Amino acid sequence: xxxxxxxxxxxxxxxxxxxxxxxxxxxxxxxxxxxxxxxxxxxxxxxxxxxxxxxxxxxxxxxxxxxxxxxxxxxxxxxxxxxxxxxxxxxxxxxxxxxxxxxxxxxxxxxxxxxxxxxxxxxxxxxxxxxxxxxxxxxxxxxxxxxxxxxxxxxxxxxxxxxxxxxxxxxxxxxxxxxxxxxxxxxxxxxxxxxxxxxxxxxxxxxxxxxxxxxxxxxxxxxxxxxxxxxxxxxxxxxxxxxxxxxxxxxxxxxxxxxxxxxxxxxxxxxxxxxxxxxx
Length: 280
Description:
Blueprint: H1 15-24, E1 51-55, E2 59-65, E3 70-75, E4 82-88, H2 98-104, E5 115-117, E6 123-130, E7 135-136, H3 144-151, H4 163-172, E8 185-187, E9 190-193, E10 199-203, E11 209-215, E12 219-225, E13 241-246, H5 262-277
């Protein structure tokens, strides 16, 4: 059998035509997908990028990251809501514990200088910079049932995906199941509790705001970019989120963040002791 050339099969109805079409796409920037290699990202960051991605509203992202990796999350248009989960990449049974993150640090509002703690009392990541100030550690992300009631659909492939369903998809890429998905922390859509104990949705601080995270151990990072559960707007409103990451150094004892609080120091010491036992 004589193989057809691309000239003789200009459509994708044949194997040769489909191959020619696919190869012609090389180098094309695909919207809302990771840039591979990350060095092709149009905006330069400090050091060489290891991850660069624009996450569409209603989309998700996931990545295994080395210790010391710095991650910038940017609310491009002012309506992103980055729901974030972290797992110990070497032992995913250890994961972000939002309750301990709040309780141990005596602070429910996450901002620069705060730590994202695991259920083992270790630091998964630290918040280095924050130009938004509009975040939430209490209400987690949306569920399929809730989105079906509110928007008419909550499936991950539908018009209004639920954050938990997107976390499940991202987790599957790292051998995590539905039961492995704990409560998350969210960035860029704020909630404050008033004097009467009532939650007040604050919304966004505006476009271009960012949060800088540093991985304090090897982690798996999952992100779902979906509306906050307390967002009162009737429409499913969420805009793109930009994610960039580059190599760096984890927090060391001479870093002011290490000893900023007694609770933080103990968490860093727990982390250092654990990693030292692994030869890291």
